[in-house]
């Protein structure tokens, strides 16, 4: 049976190409740009007594209020907002570094495992996504509770050895919060690292071994530099959402654990000051995205110069 094919010179409809290109851009506009513009407009609005905000366009004109000056003044004077921003950056950096230290050996082992075993190992990494993050955080909360298995077991063992006199209090500390954040965000580090390491040509390792390089030297001089793209992607995937994290600090952190997500929630729901909260959110976005954009531009120039 013969099939009639169109000639290569037959003009094709541009709708197919534009639909493929335009669909992701339309999704970004609807789901990212429009909410950002709306949030920015709220940050310029005037608060209504008792909660809420007034429309910036009313009575045939535009009415803007400067809600950013108090935020910048507080940051410059070292107030609560500055402390929350710095604390969020600190804990997000620790989480990203912790995920990298724990996740890199996992990803390296997965990439060096047998090909038929790699899908199973990848499935184990993705299994936590099948359970709600809130349920997993509550499980950690029960585990770290004073009557939980972990706290009671450690307290009994340490008190039996005479190292402590009182039971441990693990819940509501920076340790329990960091444990929860690293546990939740660890797959976001392992997956890009595994993607970068699995694409690495094993002949590099064979050539290094033939030239007399030790495994440790090969790891730091060949494996780590070639997996730099996975490291950067993993750090960004963990660092950016950790800055605005709210659920984990609220459930596992203590009262003295100040993060910008909790401050934003207090401004929205307790103080009912939506414009101030929106100004804080916009400031946080700029503080995160601007350095990331500069870093990305620098990496592009570095890649072009090589």
Structure description:
The chain has helices spanning 14-43, 68-77, 80-112, 118-126, 133-144, 149-160, 174-198, 203-210, 215-226, 228-243, 247-252, 260-270, 274-305, and strands at 46-47, 53-54, 57-58, 61-62. It is mostly helical and 306 residues long. It has a domain at 86-253: MetI-like fold (Orthogonal Bundle). The strands form two sheets. Strands 1-2 form a two-stranded antiparallel sheet. Helix 1 packs across helix 13 and helix 3 (80-112) packs across helix 7. The radius of gyration is 25 Å and the shape is globular. The model has no long low-confidence stretch (mean pLDDT 83).
Task: Give the key terms.
306 residues, 13 helices, single chain, globular, mainly alpha, 3% strand, two-stranded antiparallel sheet, MetI-like fold
Instruction: For the record, give the distance between the C-alpha atoms at the N and C termini, rounded to a whole number.
Output: 53 Å
CATH architecture verdict of the domain at 86-253? Orthogonal Bundle
- Assign an overall shape: globular
Structural class of the helices, strands and pairings?
A: mainly alpha
Please report the total strand number as a whole number: 4
Main β sheet profile: 2 strands, antiparallel
Q: Number of helical segments?
A: 13
By CATH, the superfamily of the domain at 86-253 comes out as MetI-like
Order of helices and strands: HEEEEHHHHHHHHHHHH
Estimate the strand proportion. Answer: under 5%
Concise structural overview:
With 306 residues, the protein is mainly α. It has a domain at 86-253: MetI-like fold, CATH 1.10.3720.
